[in-house]
Design brief:
By secondary structure, the chain is an all-alpha fold. It has a single domain (2-291), classed as Farnesyl Diphosphate Synthase (Orthogonal Bundle). Helices cover 71% and strands 1% of the residues. The protein has helices spanning 2-22, 31-41, 48-59, 64-85, 102-105, 108-126, 135-149, 154-163, 171-181, 183-197, 201-228, 231-234, 240-243, 249-253, 255-272, 281-291; strands at residues 95-96, 99-100. Strands 1-2 form a two-stranded antiparallel ribbon. The two termini are 15 Å apart.
């Protein structure tokens, strides 16, 4: 677990350096929106998606420098989703990653623009001619990310989440919401390196199964933390789902069954990536998510 935490810290530091380079502050009136973008993107969060990209890529033999454009682009999209998710029209949350949400630190209009700008910047970054990989693979990655971030992925999941604020969801609908809202970008982060590596179907299937388990596990532990976590550690407002009577894995399963299901998902995730050998960092990450406190 120490090795994993060290790796996460290293990736976070490298990610921040690259985001800093990708988001320079201009000396004009557009600076404010860049500052808002940087405020949410740099120096916070667990960097899980970049971790999956880098770790999976290494297991598949992809050069690290070819993986970073994907990792930076994906982190931009993830950050934009958090900025918009915190807005009053969405989750209306004033705390993110232990500090004021973007719209609190700046204002609602600037936060909307910052999110929009991060989304478009992500595809500018991913399509850069400076990233010298095969054009067909680059186009494939752009297409995949568009799909996983859009209505067939994250946005679709967010829509179901909003509907779930007004009506109860079935277990099937809740799983679909999770698979799209949280799981889609996690799955992309695990399979994107397969495009660069042109990996075989056995490994790609294993990684897809792993990502499915990890996405569900992450949401399960998120719901558990919302009930039992410490706000100072988690870094966001807790207990809001229960107060709003939203459908969660806790409301459907109860706390103990949710914990047992999470343990089963962790075991299944570890089994899924056994093809890469024992004690790999993907297996360690599954355990880390299971026992996380933030």
């Amino acid at each position: 677990m120490t090795d994993l935490k060290t790796e996460l810290a290293t990736i976070r530091a490298q990610l921040d350096l690259r985001l800093n380079q990708a988001l320079p502050i201009p000396n004009d009136l557009t600076a404010r929106v860049i500052e808002a973008m940087r405020y949410s993107a740099i120096g916070g969060g667990k960097a899980l998606r970049p971790f999956f990209i880098l770790t999976t890529g290494r297991l598949l033999g992809v050069k690290e420098e070819d993986l970073w454009p994907i990792a930076v682009s994906l982190e931009m999209i993830h950050t934009y989703s958090l900025i918009h998710d915190d807005l009053p029209a969405m989750d209306n949350d004033s705390l993110r990653r232990g500090k004021p949400s973007n719209h609190i630190q700046f204002d609602e209009a600037t936060a909307i623009l910052a999110g929009d700008a991060l989304l478009t910047k992500a595809f500018e970054h991913l399509s850069s001619p400076n990233w010298q990989i095969d054009d067909e693979k680059k186009c494939r990655l752009i297409s995949l990310l568009s799909c996983y971030a859009g209505t067939q992925g994250m946005i679709g999941g967010q829509m179901i989440d909003l509907i779930g604020e007004k009506q109860s969801l079935t277990l099937s609908e809740l799983k679909q919401m999770q698979r799209l809202k949280t799981g889609a970008l996690l799955e992309f982060s695990c399979i994107a390196p397969c495009v660069l590596a042109s990996c075989d179907s056995i490994k790609e299937t294993a990684l897809r199964r792993y990502a499915t388990c990890i996405g569900l596990l992450f949401q399960m532990t998120d719901d558990i933390l919302d009930e039992t976590g410490q706000e100072a550690l988690v870094g966001k407002t807790l207990g809001k789902d229960r107060k709003a009577k939203k459908t969660t894995f806790i409301s459907l399963f109860g706390l103990e069954k949710a914990r047992e299901t999470a343990r089963q998902l962790e075991e299944e995730a570890v089994q899924s990536v056994a093809v890469f050998g024992e004690n790999n960092l993907l297996s360690a990450m599954a355990h880390y998510i299971l026992i996380r406190e933030k």
